[in-house]
């Protein structure tokens, strides 16, 4: 016969209350969810500019890692750096004849560079279905884009926003759904950069010299 542990009956009522409360709340206690964004980014079909572009990626951009600090939300840590590097490493070579990674603007040796480009991730936001009561994962990304001439003088400074979403019904987990929404947002950013770059008024005026 199975032996029943009767020690619980000898515990004070206050300790019993703590014990059973712990049994109830423990399964509801969430742990940190981590996500390293991964995805494929197609090369845009645009007219390539016959220019050499020097690109500066600061460490925060290369290794961007979002950590949720709002105590009312679930604990998420989202690594975006490698995915956005993959995006820009795909998009920029399609836009320019040559792309060179640099550490400073202008570099000590940059006589053959026509333009310098420095992107910065300014803002990142996301929504979960349980927060909006809509079966959709949503992501917003805001980039600050700066372009300099060969002497390091600022030509243009503009904001590029991107949006991505994915229905929760098609995903097996929160991680995969959020990853897909982020990939869609990054693709939106890549398309926006490729299609709008030459149409930024200050850049368009600067490009007149090559027409």
CA radius of gyration is: 25 Å
The SSE string, one letter per element, is HEEHEEHEEHEEHH
Biggest sheet descriptor: 5 strands, mixed
Tell how many strands the DSSP assignment holds: 8
Determine the fraction of residues in helical runs and give it as a percent range.
25-40%
Give the termini distance in whole angstroms: 93 Å
The CATH topology is what? Rossmann fold
Give the strand line-up of the largest sheet: 5-2-6-7-8
Tell me what the CATH architecture is: 3-Layer(aba) Sandwich
| Regions with little confidence, pLDDT below 50 for 5+ residues | 1-29
Count up the helices.
Answer: 6
At a glance:
The protein has 211 residues and is of the alpha/beta class.
Structure description:
It is a single chain. The protein is of the alpha/beta class and 211 residues long. It has a single domain (46-210), classed as ABC-type transport auxiliary lipoprotein component (Rossmann fold). It is 31% helix and 32% strand. It has 6 helices and 8 strands. The strands form 2 sheets. It has a 5-stranded mixed beta sheet with strand order 5-2-6-7-8. Strands 1-4-3 form a 3-stranded mixed beta sheet. A hairpin with an 8-residue loop joins strand 3 and strand 4 (76-79). The longest helix is centred in the C-terminal third of the chain and has 23 residues, at 174-196. 21% of the residues are buried. Mean pLDDT is 85; it is low at 1-29.
